[in-house]
Specification:
Among the domains are: about 160 residues, Dipeptide-binding Protein, Domain 1 (Dipeptide-binding Protein, domain 1); about 250 residues, Dipeptide-binding Protein, Domain 3 (Dipeptide-binding Protein, domain 3). Strands 12-13-14-3-15-26-16 form a 7-stranded mixed sheet, covered by helices on one side. It has a 5-stranded mixed sheet with strand order 22-21-23-18-24, covered by helices on one side. Strands 6-7-9-8 form a 4-stranded antiparallel sheet. The chain is an alpha+beta fold.
Length: about 600
């Protein structure tokens, strides 16, 4: 805790430590108070009222309860077999008992289930639950089923506490062992009897099952639903939670309640955070250091100095390769070379990102583990730091892409080079980045005009099979997961996503390269470290040569700022606890809920 900041606000604590009345779902006429010293308040996760509690669905809009991701699923209510820790790449057992075990050929994996693990109704969690969950996900075609069925052939119960996961094979080898491992920390384990109940009442109709609100859902995690409306979502600790057994945490989480108020926008959330009404805030705050350095607020981040968090994501400008002009690699690379990435870092990210001088561009995030996966010297000549106006102009001139009529705009195949640069309206850091991309175009004789459509429109265009509306547009890349950096290279360049409607998986510019597809097939099953590094180096070379997209910044998977007005002892980079800064909910980050303490 930064104590000197706390002193400035001691007099305000009386205001914050008041209780707030909420209506319980069981008795709408009654009220119950959430004592401030028993409640951890969140911000930046839940936008709008939830749709329900069903983890079989992809449309519950219930960010705190139902969020399954490769970088570590949110496990306050539903749990996974293991918890991924992005800091060291480890898989910590949760429902699982001990480490998972591959057979010699890495085609089958065995996982044991903890004997102490129980459902919220007191019944034991079994291997049957694990097996039935996977089969149900595949059968109804939800996100978990469609994502993992290409890599997992089956999950069977050997006995009540032993799970056998069989990988899908190609030429006798597992198609992708990395994705099998990813499954362990991403997909929730659900109670078989509850899933069967939902199937019966929905008459086994996949669409109906995915729309079911799951109001009677049985869970295994430390918190359960307490209240939800269009203003807030509240969870209450399950004091019978199995995890207090000595085989797991040995105790209960500290806070009795978790509450997420639903704010109108980022500005409203930031105001509440500064006022001490939010304890854990997951949103980008420009110049976050000003909150303690200038305003004297008891607010802190995972690191005391820039970039203040662990940057594992790479928001990227994607080229629509079907647009005339952007099908020319010289034009693509010239734009990428001319962009002032330091300006993006300062203006869009306010310094909350390593620079490309610090971490030269590739397909890998800045973490030491990923940076070690490729040969830096082998790709050095292909990298660019940015703001290289002279170099970009020379590249275009050499390719014969020049301004023939003297109006300041270069022509290509008889047409002026004029493109749009797009980001969702209201995503201020992305919008600022696109403005800098547009400015770079002007400096090298390419007209780039910014457009900022609403997200509801933007997402349908970007994920379409084909589109002509956006020429250069921003989307994200994979963050830290057990499958990285393979997964990010796949997301950036795999042709498997071309021609896919409602494509949320990647390669939104529709790039295609046969060698990349070959490398993506080779890497996951390669056991020789030197060979794997060679493959990764080749993939980076292709990316930097063809420039199908270009990353604009490094960014955390989740922003993680905390108020130490009421609670303290949050995860920090220098505390020696190895808990990642993922808002005390995702993967092994949930360990933070067991360590927080009240400010004295």
């Amino acid at each position: 805790m930064k104590a000197k900041r706390l002193i400035a606000l001691l007099l305000t604590m009386v205001l914050v430590l008041t209780t707030t009345a909420f209506v319980t779902p069981a008795a709408s006429a009654a009220t119950v108070s959430l004592p401030r010293t028993q409640t951890l308040y969140y911000g930046g996760i839940q936008w709008g009222a939830i749709n329900g509690w069903n983890p079989l669905s992809d449309d519950m809009n219930n960010g705190m309860a139902v969020t399954q991701g490769a970088g570590g699923s949110r496990c306050i209510m539903f749990e996974t077999l293991y918890m991924y820790n992005m800091l060291d790449g480890s898989m910590k057992p949760l429902l699982a008992d001990g480490a998972y075990k591959w057979n010699k050929s890495m085609t089958e994996m065995t996982v044991k289930i903890k004997s102490a693990a129980k459902w919220s109704d007191g019944t034991p969690i079994t291997a049957d639950d694990v097996a039935y969950t996977f089969a149900a996900n595949v059968k109804i075609g939800n996100a978990q089923g469609t994502q993992f069925s290409p890599y997992i052939a089956s999950i069977k119960a050997v006995d009540k506490k032993t799970v056998l996961i069989k990988a899908k094979l190609s030429n006798g080898k597992a198609v992708n062992p990395l994705m099998v491992i990813t499954y362990l920390g991403q997909s929730y384990v659900l109670q078989k009897s509850w899933v069967k109940k939902v199937e019966v009442r929905c008459k086994n109709d996949p669409a109906a099952i995915k729309k079911d609100k799951g109001l009677d859902v049985v869970h295994s995690g430390p918190y359960t639903k307490f209240f939800a409306d269009n203003q807030k979502v509240v969870f209450i600790r399950d004091d019978k939670y199995w995890g207090k057994d000595k085989s797991m945490w040995g105790k209960l989480p500290v806070a009795k309640y978790l509450c997420h108020a639903i704010y109108a926008d980022n500005n409203a959330t930031e105001v509440a955070f500064k006022a001490g009404q939010i304890d854990v805030d997951q949103q980008f705050i420009p110049n976050v250091q000003d909150l303690w350095e200038k305003d004297g607020l008891p607010i802190s981040t995972y690191m005391d100095v820039a970039p203040y968090g662990v940057c594992v994501n790479m928001p990227t400008a994607w080229y629509n390769l079907s647009i005339p002009g952007l099908d020319n690699v010289n034009i693509r690379k010239a734009i990428a070379m001319a962009v002032d990435y330091d300006a993006i870092n300062q203006n869009a990210m306010t310094g909350q990102s390593p620079t490309f001088a610090d971490v030269p561009r590739s397909c890998m995030n800045p973490t030491p583990g990923e940076q070690a996966t490729f040969d830096h010297n082998a790709v050095k000549s292909l990298q660019w730091v940015g703001n290289d106006i002279a170099g970009a102009k020379a590249l275009l001139d050499k390719a014969g892409i020049v301004d023939k009529d003297g109006d300041g705009i270069r022509e290509y195949n008889g047409k002026k080079l004029s493109f749009s640069a797009c980001a969702p309206n209201g995503w201020t850091d992305w919008m600022a980045a696109m403005e800098i991309v547009a400015a770079a175009g002007k400096k090298i004789g390419i007209e780039i005009t910014t457009k900022f459509p609403e997200w509801s429109v933007y997402q349908t265009v970007v994920t379409a099979v084909a589109q002509k509306d956006y020429d250069i547009f921003m989307m994200w890349t994979d963050s830290a997961t057990p499958a990285q950096p393979w997964g990010r290279i796949r997301m950036m360049m795999s042709s498997e996503y071309n021609g896919v409607a409602n494509n949320w998986s990647g390669n939104w510019g529709h790039y295609s390269n046969k060698r990349i597809d070959q490398l993506l097939a080779l890497i996951p099953s390669e056991t020789n470290a030197a060979k794997t590094k060679q493959y990764y180096t080749e993939a980076v070379k292709i990316y930097l040569t063809d420039v199908p997209s270009f990353s604009l910044m490094y960014r955390p998977n989740l922003f993680h700022a905390v108020s130490e007005l009421v609670w303290t002892n949050y995860p920090a980079s220098d505390d020696g606890k190895n808990i990642p800064p993922l808002i005390l909910t995702d993967g092994y980050s949930i360990a933070g809920l067991y360590n927080i303490t009240l400010v004295k």
